[in-house]
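Table 4 source record.
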Amino acid sequence: MREGKTTENTNRRETMATKNTTKRRTAAETYGNTRNRIDTKLAKLQEALAKHAAQQKEEPRNWGYAGDLGHVEEMLDGLSEFLGL
């Protein structure tokens, strides 16, 4: 029984040591990282919209493309409202 207690204490110390050496991110670092990911996604969105526009030009009578953009606009409106725009 003593061995189990010793192992448990050792594991607890190792866990505490790991927690103490792990670098915690600041709010500013997290914000910056998230902002970079959002910027990347926005650039990819622009590329996808350009591709979508090219496809629409090949099928100008297809209402599906107009519907797609309507949906994208609704989603962007939700984001804009969230950000106070």
